[in-house]
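Students often ask why inverse folding is considered easier than folding. One informal answer: many sequences map to the same fold, so there is more than one right answer. In these notes we will look at a single instance of the problem. The structure comes first.
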């Protein structure tokens, strides 16, 4: 009898939570939240409940929550919004070398229009933004500028030292955008305490539906809207809201349990120890000396290509990833790992295993057994 599928790719997406599904089904027949009649008011009620749930889970004032079609739109809204706003548009954008393509490609697209100058901040071999290099760059920046620093990296799980950077950003006339998509639901998020101006979050990483997210904004921050049209979201994002998705997002945010998620660390560490105990020539665990998301393990096993690893595991019924889901279809090595000074061989033999709150010890052992067998088979074939 074949084993059920084993999903170990929670950083790519997470299974829809039953509470989110129920909330979505209940919101299915909603009216238009902008209508003043009772159908509209009822829909508005659903929207505002969800807004409060996101607010409570992120410690962002409810009026600061702008619903979007996902993390990518929230990022676009933040970056384009700051570059195109009427008063004091930013003229320089700084991003770390390990930002998700949603940030990197957007910053590059804005720079290509000539609106801003783009600067890339280097990271250390441990996958952390180089604090001294970043501080030096901010000191020389043209005001006002936008600094984009992700809270946690999607491939390595490495958590970025926002608190060590923000003073230098603010005192030099900069704004801070934090991509919180990967961190939300996995570690405690306190938007007020973080003091960021803007932060992106996404529903599908926390057990909500795909295609919905939010941009969290500090009170008073002015952005040019990415979507013009109706006056929805306090004129900050035109278009009738995706009530069904938003209801699911709110319910998933209400179910965020960071303490329960923290338990994935024990299993992740056990998996890491098992890998290290194997005789793997050149094994690298990325970000192992850094503060990481509890559920994420990213490693390179030279000689065993990423796509081969993913396929071998898939044949065993196990879903893992060759880095970020968006790039896993490509053969090129991981940009994130390359930015951490990896060799070409290391960058093209990377695997990301990301656990969920329901992952068990048995799951970890099953992965380990399947992976070890596939690795040994590959090495034998290479030696023959
Ligand atoms: N930022 C990070 C760090 C991510 O990991 C992702 C998705 O993988 C995104 C942004 C994009 O979010 P979405 O899939 O909601 O557009």
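Output (designed amino acids):
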């Amino acid at each position: 009898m074949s084993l059920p599928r084993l999903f170990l790719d929670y950083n790519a997406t997470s299974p829809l939570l039953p509470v989110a599904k129920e909330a979505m089904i209940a919101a299915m027949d909603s009216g238009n939240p902008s209508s003043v009649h009772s159908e509209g008011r009822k829909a508005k009620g659903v929207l505002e409940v969800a807004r409060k749930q996101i607010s409570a889970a992120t410690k962002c004032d409810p009026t600061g929550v702008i619903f979007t079609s996902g993390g990518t739109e929230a990022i676009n809204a933040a970056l384009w919004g700051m570059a195109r706003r009427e008063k004091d548009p930013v003229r320089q954008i700084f991003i770390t070398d390990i930002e998700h393509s949603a940030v990197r490609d957007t910053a590059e697209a804005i720079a290509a229009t000539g609106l801003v100058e783009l600067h890339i901040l280097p990271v250390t071999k441990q996958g952390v933004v180089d604090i001294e290099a970043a501080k030096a760059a901010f000191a020389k920046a043209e005001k006002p500028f936008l600094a984009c620093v992700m809270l946690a990296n999607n491939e390595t799980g490495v958590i970025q030292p926002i608190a060590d950077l923000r003073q230098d950003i603010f005192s030099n006339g900069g704004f801070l955008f934090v991509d919180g998509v990967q961190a939300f639901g996995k570690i405690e998020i306190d938007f007020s305490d973080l003091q960021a101006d803007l932060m992106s979050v996404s529903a599908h990483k926390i057990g909500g539906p795909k295609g919905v997210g939010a941009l969290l904004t500090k009170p008073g921050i002015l952005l040019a809207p990415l979507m013009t049209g109706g006056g929805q979201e306090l004129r900050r994002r035109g278009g009738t809201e995706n009530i069904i998705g938003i209801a699911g997002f709110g319910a998933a945010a209400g179910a965020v349990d960071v303490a329960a998620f923290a338990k994935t660390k024990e299993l992740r560490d056990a998996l890491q120890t098992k890998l290290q105990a194997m005789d793997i020539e050149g094994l690298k665990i990325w970000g192992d000396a850094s503060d990481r998301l509890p559920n994420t393990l990213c490693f390179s096993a030279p000689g065993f290509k990423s796509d081969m690893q993913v396929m071998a595991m898939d044949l065993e019924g196990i879903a893992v990833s060759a880095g970020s889901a968006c790039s896993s279809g490509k053969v090129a090595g991981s940009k994130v790992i390359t930015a951490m000074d990896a060799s070409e061989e290391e960058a093209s033999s990377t695997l990301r295993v990301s656990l969920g709150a329901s992952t068990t010890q048995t799951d970890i052992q099953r992965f380990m057994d399947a992976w070890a067998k596939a690795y040994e088979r590959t090495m034998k074939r290479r030696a023959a």
